[in-house]
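Q: Hi! First time asking for a complex rather than a single chain. Here are the components, and I think there are two in total. Is that enough to go on?
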Amino acid sequence: MKQREKLFQRTVDLHREITRAGLTRRELLKMGLLSSATGLLLPISGLSLRAAWAKDGGNGSGGACAVPGKRPLTPFKDPMPRLVNWETVRNNDPASISAGNGGGAPGADPVGNLAGGDSKIRLLNDFPQLAGATPYANLAHQAWKGGDAADPSLSRLINPPKKWYEMHVRQHRHQWHSELNPGTGNPAWGFGSDSESFVPGPCFRTRYGESHFVRIHNDLPNGNGVDNVSPLGFGTPVISTHMHNLHTPSESDGNPLYWNYPGHYYDYHYPNVYAGVNQYGGIGDAREALGTLWYHDHKLDFTAQNVYAGLAGLNCIYDEFDSGDHSESSGLRLPCGDNYEFDVPLVFHDRAFDANGVDYFPLACFDGAIGNEMTVNGVIQPYFEVKRRKYRFRFLDMGPSRFYWWFLSDNSKFTVIANDGNLLPAPVQVQSFKQGVAERFDVIIDFSSYKNGDRLYLVNRGEQLDGRGPTGNLLRTGIAVLQFRITDQAFGTDNSVIPTRLRELPDMNQPVVNARRWEFNRQGGGWAVNGNQFNRDVVSATIPEGTAEHWTIVNGGGSWSHPVHIHYEEHRYLSYNRLPPPPIEAGRKDVIRLDPNAQVEIYMRFRDYKGLYPMHCHNVVHEDHAMMVMWKIV
Amino acid sequence: MNRRRFLGAGLAPLAFTLPARGATYAPRRVSLAAQRGMFPNVPLIAHDGRRVNFYEDLIQGDRIVLINFFLLRCRDGLCPVSIYNLTQTQQLLGDRIGRDIFFYSITLAPETDRPDLLRAYAEAFGVKPGWLFLTGAPAGIEKLRRALGYVDTDPERDKDKSNHINVARYGNDALERWAAVSTQSTPDNIATALRFLKV
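A: Yes, that's all I need. Here is the structure of the assembled complex.
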């Protein structure tokens, strides 16, 4: 009875909203809110009409932050693509990695005798002005055979590549929805091969203890010469690819200052070790494992624009526990299946299109950028056919500035197993959870209790009217972002389990040797950390390798939310607004969802590799204007 | 490489066509950002007395520009720091200023910051050609700062003009490349941002 009353109330509310928005019957049909069979309103969450049909950002700040009006596109019409699982180069043989035009990889010496490895010289020949200005000119790959040969302690950290990959970053046409510029799509930048690139980019499936290498060729139009300008209208073809949030030596971390120029390449080497190699030996402390990582552009001043252009993808890293076992019979036996069929990345990205269907990025808005369309894996409001068994979904908020508050349309619970790629000590069952930019959540959904033909929606009920952050209000209906269509297709047996324990947390026994306070705030029209906007010549903290620190991170106030991200190591909350963190956040994290006036205390260590790393707000528009600092492990 | 794109349960790819191999895109004469109103073609007066239209004369085309807002009478002393940083940046960039890099400093107080005062200010700072201090009709200046995003959503904070002075926009209209840099940072930081916008 209660359920029916709720449904009735929801329908009444929806009626009211529709009347207020003045929608016609035809528009309702197109939006998927009216059943074409019965002519009755579908009593399920649809669009939040006021927010979705807003003609402008509503904050009265003028044109710079306005969001174009939403075009009517049929929701749940297009299938949700899966990310392409990326394979090694032919025969996993580094000899088949192409030298292209040479590049700017760290290290003056040929890297592991790779073809074109003596790449620095080529880059500096092309851009002589870079000599002396290139921050990475004298760096070497610490974990290869490079590094300082005079320092024997570094030999522990050497892990030459075992898996060899190659990617190209290039411009292509992308179809965001079958009704949006049908046949031609929209220009986009994506990761892929030399002839085919994707948004989101491919998904790596990697493994701890199996070091890997990626040569990223930059094939973007360089803008030199009048017929080589990208039609996007935003972005820069100079890129830097960050692997968020792997324990990677600084020269391969994708630092905002370490650039990959068009027509060149950059070599990234990922030792794929856990944090704590020096302290624990071997490949480090297995309690420090991550699982869901993402890679994305991180070019100084252009991060928001370049990620918006399409430069983001996933990396799923496995170990003996989070085993990636297709038969689901070893380790934690999390959902996987052949070809990772039941281990599915979901990349959420909201995007704006103008009245002509052209991509819209608010270049002049300092607050942040929100979209008028919700996309999943590169398609607007898609459907996804599922089989009646368990799936592991890896939720990623690709941004640029939206925060989600997730519910399922029938209010059943999510089983959350990981936060920011870190398996929790035990699964947490929640009816809803919030997700900020760059946060990842691994969620198991079991479709076995549904019937063939059922529809289940993933709904965002967090209200957000502009790029500043969520208002904190819970919308009654929200926006249905993804439609699951339950089918009775065969899948053999579901061998996966939901374990009672996942991964033990590392201790916090190592004494803290330093405490720092970082205040994130608006300043002079821009964004600052401790009163300063980013300056590439400044190192804000110098930290001895192997030490632990206590950081207090504060949102200085106002109406903005700041998802603060620290590279390289995960941290644990000691307190969030002076309270212990809730179970879903009691594990390790690397993105702190800092609401207005919030304050968190974290415990963090700085181990193994040395060099420069950033901390910044991951509302990437704030990052670009210039809410970032560099710290350095010495 | 063995890669296939699974789309739900089926195999039908979303249809889209790629341009012919080797096809390039023709650049726009008026950038997309300008078409969308980011650079209103507002009439302004430079400190050397010239009358200019903002977009057509100062922004449009293949040139690297840096735009910042300031006030002659800056309550908290931040403007002189910004302007000083920019003069040092101008030194670092040498003869590129006026050739392919241009600085535009626009007053937020057009009622009081008249062209002759701007000229005195520019001369006091040793500003060389290629850097214009600009004023204009108050309505035009207001339109410009709003279009460029120098706005605070809180009306009280918005009224305080010193909340719009720390960030400079830099970019190139023909390349359609736009970013921002802090004028409170260092001349090196600013010069590097401009030097490497186009390589």
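A: Residues 1-24 of chain B have pLDDT under 50 and may be disordered. Let me know if you'd like any chain examined more closely.
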